[in-house]
Amino acid sequence: MKIVFHYAAGPRLAAKLAAFGAEALDIAICAEADEARFAGLIGEMEVIWHVLKPLTAPMIEAAPKLRLIQKIGVGINTIDLDAAAARGIPVCNLPGTNSQAVAEMTLLLMLATLRRLPALDHATRSGAGWSIDPAEQDNWHELGSRTVGLVGYGAVPRRLAPALAALGCRVVYTCRTPKPDAIGEWLPLNALLEVADILSLHVPLTPETAGLIGREALARLPPNAVLVNTARGGLVDQTALTDALEANQLAAAGLDVFAEEPVDHTQPLFRLPNVVVTPHIAWASTATFARSIAVAAENCRRLANGQELLHRVR
Prior knowledge:
This protein is of the alpha/beta class. The chain has helices at about 10-20, 35-40, 55-60, 80-85, 100-115, 115-125, 155-165, 190-195, 215-220, 240-245, 285-305; strands at about 1-5, 25-30, 45-50, 70, 90, 145-150, 170-175, 185, 200, 225-230, 250-255, 275. Helix 7 (about 155-165) links the parallel strand 6 (about 145-150) and strand 7. Helix 5 (about 100-115) crosses helix 7. The two termini are about 20 Å apart.
């Protein structure tokens, strides 16, 4: 079975993928930016292990042998589901395989923004670490005792909430209905916005959630609030966010995701000292890859044997 892993792979991961050849799973690694290589593989591709680069209708049409679209991760907003359905191609995802990594990165971004970690790292490396302007002390904050508002209460918030509570945070959350086993207090979104010192996003990007955090939502946040987004960039009005940060309406933002990716690094958002950014890698860890590849390979075996697929979403 010919499989395309549509993402760059380091040496260890590449070796693990190559080992599946013993099971007749021929996995070709293709970096998302390598369009020439992908064009050479797409005609024979039976399965695509899709990560982030949008899988469009023309791409699906150009793959006559395609039998399975396997998302490495959870969000399927980057897949043309109508085009897949028109061909009868099943779409599967991998719920839970990256939740620990995303929860840890979310916590990391909260801490990095509150303590201005990138600026301290840069100052120390440049020899200015012990002569920082004392005025910068006003920008160094603790996480404990703050109210953290979680938008969504899926697998990532379930891991994150206990850690936040253990650090002394008040946890509040919003989702369609209260969760009886949740850590924290359920609030409707607008009420949550009004008390959240730190707003952390954990919902999928859908027509209903696109632009969920715009000017009105940002204005509801308490003074000096922090926004953290490890979900999807389209949840936030990026222009409104930039304006709020420039006006010191928000204290800081920690962002792993953006409305358009790869990101134009010249945008005003990236010039702000109160922003910490990472390139949509909250999900990526050696453990995530191990869990994800194991389930993705199992689905390929099931496809070959005509068995029911795991975590089919469409």
